[in-house]
Amino acid sequence: MFKSSPTALHHLVPVVLSIAVLIPSSQGGQCWSMMSRPDRCTESLRTNVTREECCSDGSATTAWSPKDLTSGDLFFWMSLGGGVTCKACKVSCEGVRCGKGMRCILRKQRPACVCSPACSRKKRQMGEVCGSDGRTYKHMCRLLKRQCRKNKQLTIEYFGKCQKTCDKVHCAGRKTCLLDQVLRPHCVRCQGYCARGSIGEYVCGADNVTYSSSCHIRQAACAKGKAVPLAYRGKCKAGASCENIRCRKGQSCLIDPKGGPPRCVTCPNQCNVPKTTMLCANNNYTYSTWCHMIQDACKHGILLEPKYEGPCEETTSQQTNIIPLNVFDSQDHL
């Protein structure tokens, strides 16, 4: 058997090291969703990937760094070190795939996807429109652009400026103007026929009128031009109270301080707070949303309804003794 001498092993070590250097490492680097500032990344997409794998998604913002970091290193560099040194995958719009209604442009010498919905001259010349978000847009194209930027579905409620009543709203076709629960007008297609099978499924409206079905209460709302809330299921009762009516599972019974029928209401657990939907309730407090107003109503067991959209005027002497939970302080109204 051949025995290697110490001298022979000494000559083999540099050869082994040279081979190790020549063999490419199979370990990849770090893929990032975007660069937070020039040459720095903080939002990790994938780990242990090659540059080719990372940059194959066609995104304008993806970046890559050659070193695959441990979770501890990632935490340090992302939270305390100002980000990891990285390099953008794309330096031009070549190969960049933007979504529908978007196009690639160079912004500060970097590719970026911007909203550019297809919009004809005719659409621009149709004039102002009121969007489903309650905003007035100069023309339809502006609405489409905001829809793209905010990544949410927007529709045209009606042509012209957004209104607070149905008086000046002109609905297209056979649609009818109807005020919703926050007194905002909408153009809706009223149901002209209620199925015979629905008759007998009586409901009591907030106007203390018995309707043959939920369909019939919607028909009445269209005729009145204002939503008729459903108070409770079944025929309206004389002397109805929260003690003698039954609400569905998950609903709470609220007392109407104006003497109307008790109201079965689904109480929300959580509410989003878009500040554009503030409203003034009949307790003269401003709520960030209709949802928050209902939360307060459920907390106290007393029905609250909107007086008008927007913050309440400063009339603290007229405020009720109901302690609100979800109202804006006066400085938040500014």
Automatic annotation (TrEMBL):
Molecular function via GO: calcium ion binding; collagen binding; extracellular matrix binding
Keyword flag Translocase: no
SMART domains reported for this sequence: FOLN (SM00274), KAZAL (SM00280)
Alphabetical UniProt keywords: Disulfide bond, Glycoprotein, Repeat, Signal
Domain Kazal-like, chain residue ranges per copy: 114-164, 188-238, 265-314
InterPro entries referenced in this protein's UniProt entry, alphabetically: Fol_N, Kazal_dom, Kazal_dom_sf, TB_dom, TB_dom_sf
Stretch forming the signal peptide: 1-28
Gene3D superfamilies: 3.30.60.30, TGF-beta binding (TB) domain
SUPFAM superfamilies: Kazal-type serine protease inhibitors, TB module/8-cys domain
Top-level taxon: Eukaryota
Keyword Glycoprotein included in the entry's annotation: yes
Pfam families found in the cross-reference section: FST_N, Kazal_2
Residue ranges of domain TB in the record: 29-66
A cellular component annotation (GO) from this entry: extracellular space
Name the record gives this protein: Follistatin
